[in-house]
Amino acid sequence: MVLLWEDCYSILSSEILQNNGMKSLVSLTLLIGMTSCGGSSKNEYLALSSTNEIEVVYQDPQAKLLLEKHCNVCHSPTAPQGEGRIAPPMVAVKMHYIEKYPKKDDFVKAMIDFVNRPSEEASLMPGAVRKFGLMPYQQFPNGSITEIASYLYDYTIESPIWFPSHWEKMGKGRFKQKGAKENVKGRQDGSHYMKQSWETKGLEIALKTKEILGKELMGTIQKNGVLNALEFCSTNAIPITDSVGVVNGVSIKRISDRNRNSLNKASEMETRYIHQFQSDMQSGIEPQPIVEMSKDQVQFYYPIMTNSMCLQCHGETEKIRPEVYHKIKELYPLDLAFGYTENQVRGIWSILFPLKNK
């Protein structure tokens, strides 16, 4: 699928970086390699028992997934320090907030206040604001930021390789992250855990694909501009998605009931799922993955959301830059992917896991 929300987010973020004189180019080969390393679920620890129960050792799974879905695309824990980065890593945000607000209630409240009303005056990271620009206001499902902030305070999170030395060079002393590494053990019946496991795997693959597409598009914009990025997407978005699928042994599609590329048109059933996710969002409910299991395969669906940044390509036509709109119509004469506002379901991820017959 071409230019869904994550692509549009990268466009505006890249233009901000370009205005700040930054350059970025991330190799697809490197990113595919990163995907290969992260293809299996990190939350899955199975210990089958004679009672058909599964013992699971895990960090708070819901909050961890919220962090990955809503934060890590921009606040990447893997991007290098000098390129491919459009915001500081989340561990940097966590460290600055804990330094200022050592008590959990204060930490959570301060983070919620900033997300709801971002400003340079309220920022604890003026250097990051100078480098990347101020984080724009975005809407999130009810309670999501509270869960994310609580998770950041309670648990250790992934840190870039370069960050500990960077922290020390800032005069902050030896890097030591607050938080537990594991939560307590829990019990779940086997069938319930199997479904949760596929949800986790599907989300990991969807989020990694989104990260790869965003970084590739960002590099194209910084080198050649937005109009060339539109052409890049028209010829490369689907092949890149397919490549990630091959690495992970799955089929990945991004589909929409209001598609830009005809190859990404939703079926009648997929359209019903899109409408279901839209209804959840309108009710302020955090969307949950849909997992359909059969003897031969597992089908995973999850929504792709708009935010304030992607509206430059998918928003109301009168608000899209004329040269961008004309280029879109040139590439996609039958385009339907416009007229969106912030925090709407733009399409869905469809990931098919084939099951090996034993």
From TrEMBL:
Entry GO MF terms: electron transfer activity; heme binding
Pfam families: Tll0287-like
Xref: InterPro entries: Cyt_c-like_dom_sf, Tll0287-like_dom
Domain Tll0287-like, first and last residues per copy: 192-354
Protein name: Tll0287-like domain-containing protein
